[in-house]
Amino acid sequence: MRTFSWEYFTLTGDVDAYLLYRDMHLINNHHDAEDELVEEEEQQTTGNYL
Question: Whole-model pTM?
């Protein structure tokens, strides 16, 4: 979806397409940060048992 909205924006200059692209980018970054936190917590809990 991100790629499509960027391509559509570059072809048309549609601001809404850019805003969609930006929002999708922010959502992906937010989920990546959450995934990293979960992985760190899992490592800490498994590290305590070793």
Answer: 0.61
